[in-house]
Amino acid sequence: MLVLTFPVIDPVAIAFGPLAIRWYSLAYIVGLIFGWRFMMHLAGRPPGLVARQDCDDFMIWATLGVILGGRLGYAIFYQPLYFLYNPVEILAVWRGGMSFHGGMLGVMFAAILFTRKRNISGLAFCDLVCTVAPVGLFFGRIANFINGELVGRVTDVPWAMVFPRGGPDPRHPSQLYEATLEGLVLFAVLLFLVYRIRAMERPGFLSGAFLVGYAVARGVVELVREPDAQLGFLIGGATMGQLLSVPLALGGLYLIWRARRQP
Which among 189, 246, 241, 256 has a CA at the least distance from the CA of 74? Predict the structure, then answer.
């Protein structure tokens, strides 16, 4: 059986003496910076419902939302009992363990507070945030692949890989599937809606499209991704990632329906 060799890459991307920047941290940094700059670009396009300065000022809010929400989401959704008895460990973000669903909720909460404080359109602002979110997802999944974590299930496909953390059996490189679907494909779809369908003129439409697109992409890849060891398969053989994606899809469909009803 043909098995691809897993490219062993040092998890530390850049080191300056005792200071080390890991690929995972670099993925967050690049995703946030690109998202910030592209949000400002989109804000400069019609219909101009959000000022470029607001996008600039939201950078620190988004950073805190991603980190705090992602870590708390992981603690609540994936290892609640462990963190209940070891609450201080929640602060140890350098040891790994982040939830996209939690990070998304963190950014949404930050966006709600920010838009209320600035008295700007919450849906229009969230549309910009959601349009750039797949970029961060792409870099995050690539970092997962470099770290050899969140591996796929055992398979005999020609592109299977033996991961250092996945035992001796070849597995799906599910991180690359997610980088492609949640990152590249979803970003391309949202850009099409922005530039061809002029979806920014209907606040909420892009947010809904992102939520539905992410939920579908995550749900599909979870079919070949190894479920979390501490949780296994849950209701009806579904994984936690699939169950958490259901309310996202429903909320996204509602936002799309609501946006399409606007005159």
Answer: 241
The whole-angstrom separation of Cα 69 and Cα 50 is 24
In a domain, 6, yes or no: no
* DSSP for 124-172, written as a single string: HHHHHHHHHHHHHHHHHHHHHHHHT-S-B-B---TT-B--TTS-SS-B-
Question: Taking the model in full, what pTM does it have?
Answer: 0.88
Give dist(CA 60, CA 33) in Å, integer. Answer: 11
- Residue-range definition of the domain harbouring residue 126: 12-260
Classify residue 203 by burial, with Cβ atoms within 10 Å: 0-12, 13-18, 19+.
buried
How far apart, in whole angstroms, are the C-alpha atoms of residue 129 and residue 123?
A: 10
Contacts of 190 (CB under 8 A, 6+ apart): 130, 131, 134, 206, 209, 210, 213
Q: Residue 203, SS3?
A: coil
pLDDT per residue as tens, the chain (263 positions): 567 778 878 777 777 776 777 777 788 788 889 989 999 999 999 998 999 999 999 988 988 888 888 888 778 877 888 878 787 877 766 666 677 778 888 888 899 899 999 999 999 999 999 999 999 899 889 988 988 888 999 999 999 999 988 888 999 999 999 999 999 999 999 999 999 999 999 999 999 999 999 999 999 999 999 998 777 888 888 898 899 899 999 999 999 999 998 76
Q: 115 and 65 in contact (C-beta within 8 Å)?
A: no
Say if 120 falls within a structural domain: yes
Our count of domains for the chain comes to: 1
What type of residue is 244?
A: L
- Residue labelled with tokens 């363990």: 97
